[in-house]
Amino acid sequence: MKKNYTFALVVIAALFFVFGFITWSNSQLIPYLKIACELTDTESYLVATAFFAAYFVMGIPSSYVLKLTGFKKGMSLGLLVMAGGALLFVPAANTRNFPLFLTGLFIIGSGLALLQTASNPYATVLGPIESAARRISIMGICNKIAGISAVYILGSIALSDVDALKARLPLLSDTDRAAELNALAQRVVQPYEILALSLALLAGIIWMIRLPEIVEEEAHPEDSEFTAGKTSVLQFPHLVLGAFAIFFYVGVEVISYDTFAGFGEALGFTLEQSKSFATYTGYCLLAGYVFGIAAIPRFISQQYALFLLTLLSIILVLVSMFTGGYVAVVAFALLGFSNSVVWPAIWPLAINHLGRFTKTGSALLIMGIVGGAVLPPLYGEFARAIGSKQLAYSLMIPCYLFILYFAFSGYKLGLKPRKD
């Protein structure tokens, strides 16, 4: 790896920290807004829908923005958009307006779509493709440390003493109930004001510093034999399958931490206990990223690691479904370990040999993140329909089976050099 790439990767690591903090904050916003805005389970999962739907809507536009601005300025712009979305939480909290909260989350997600479209290929091309999963795993550590921090920080602010509040609300008059809920809604105002300011400052810093601009054809000129005659990213079957793999992966990962608090309540734990269960997933993700850094590609290829750990995920989901108590909690948390290699492995396998199509291909993969918008509310409806949050996790099995297919053969579909 070139010497000047070290600083660039440090900057990307800081951005992955931002991704993690904001994304994992949703795991606390879901139970928080369910109480503050008096929502059903399915309605509360619209937090994930609004946030991740932005990736689908803004994926391709993000690629065009990056072609105009380049990676660095595009990152700054994404951060400023996110700051605007965070500020929208202030009037949303003041009025306890759930649609306004969702609008703020969509705007934050739109900024993140631009950031992710830039930063993931950046981490991928700053070095050999064979070790890309390793570099993205390092980014993932920053991401998950931030995520764990978000659960503790936002959880301690927004969900403090919520069990007592939930028990008290039915006994109050309408006026007193509204006053209690208004006070609860105000808890997120200051955190999101601070978040908006921090994002704006980081945008200014990235705008002013020097970063290498990555040009796809220059980064991997050998890819020209794979891209000759191609006019669209849809002509790369391995990329399209990779986008679907990202769709299913993000969906199951979001389910694994955003529904963990509700799963804990369904198992008989209090919300005060289960609100921090998502941190267990975070710790297991960290362990998995350390494994990825140490083992890939030195001892195991990123493709084979993806295959084996996806098999493990299926086993862990089954254990979570058919056991109880801390056994189910531990099995569900261990999904963090088995999930850890999925994103770092899918990404380089999917954009391999895209050459000049790398930015647009990256945008297509970013659109796959919409799985986080679709699958959590689908899980909520499925759980309501069958009357069991625990057995509803069977929804995750076919998702992992598709990822298993991608790891086995989908990643190489259509990857044959053109022979002139």
Structural account:
By secondary structure, this protein is an all-alpha fold. It is built from 22 helices and no strands. Helix 3 crosses helix 20 and helix 4 runs antiparallel to helix 5 (98-125). The chain is globular, with a radius of gyration of 21 Å. The model has no long low-confidence stretch (mean pLDDT 84).
Write the layout of secondary structure elements.
Layout lengths: L4 H32 L4 H4 L1 H42 L1 H7 L2 H28 L6 H27 L3 H7 L5 H12 L3 H20 L7 H4 L4 H4 L9 H22 L1 H7 L4 H4 L2 H19 L6 H21 L2 H9 L1 H5 L2 H10 L6 H10 L3 H16 L9 H13 L12
Helix pairs in contact: 1-3, 1-5, 1-6, 3-5, 3-9, 3-20, 3-21, 4-5, 4-9, 5-6, 5-20, 6-15, 6-19, 12-19, 12-20, 12-21, 12-22, 15-17, 16-17, 16-19, 16-22
Protein name: Sugar MFS transporter
Main location: membrane
Function: Intake of glucose and galactose.
Quick overview of this protein structure:
The protein is mainly alpha-helical and 420 residues long. 77% of the residues lie in helices and 0% in strands.
